[in-house]
Design a protein that fits this description.
- The protein is an alpha+beta fold.
- The protein has two domains: 44 residues, no CATH class; 49 residues, no CATH class.
- The chain is 52% helix and 15% strand.
- It has five helices and three strands, in the order E-E-H-H-E-H-H-H.
- It has a three-stranded antiparallel beta sheet, with no helix packed on it.
- A hairpin with a 4-residue loop joins strand 1 and strand 2.
- The longest helix is centred in the middle third of the chain and has 22 residues.
- The radius of gyration is 25 Å and the shape is elongated.
Length: 111
């Protein structure tokens, strides 16, 4: 059984769960689990519940479809940034950025 003292470590984002040395020594998995430590210590982020929710969403068909569509767009942006040197915008403001991306996307369009 792993228990925590409730003390946050690593800039207040991680809880450490530990087992007692007595319980760990009696376990037959000790040589494979933690051979060089007296007992098992497991760090767990305080945001792990939110991560679990996201992991469940990532298993859905809608997420996979959305991921494929986003991947196509992200590849175009990567091409614009790397090949057409659009890593830095030269025109100022939101409208300037919009115009610059429009020109670059027009140049990228296949004939």
């Amino acid at each position: 059984m792993l228990t925590s003292t409730g003390t946050l470590v690593n800039d207040g984002t991680t809880l450490l769960y530990r087992t007692s040395k007595h319980d760990c020594d009696a376990c037959e998995l000790k040589p494979r689990c933690c051979p060089k430590m007296p007992s098992r210590k497991v760090p767990r982020s305080i945001h792990e519940k939110a991560r679990d929710v996201v992991r469940e969403i990532a298993k859905t068909h809608a997420y996979v479809t959305s991921w494929r569509e986003r991947k196509k767009i992200e590849m175009l942006f990567a091409h614009l940034k790397r090949i057409l040197r659009l890593d830095r915008l030269r025109l100022r403001g939101p409208l300037g950025a919009q115009d610059e991306f429009l020109l670059a996307a027009t140049a990228l369009q296949p004939a």
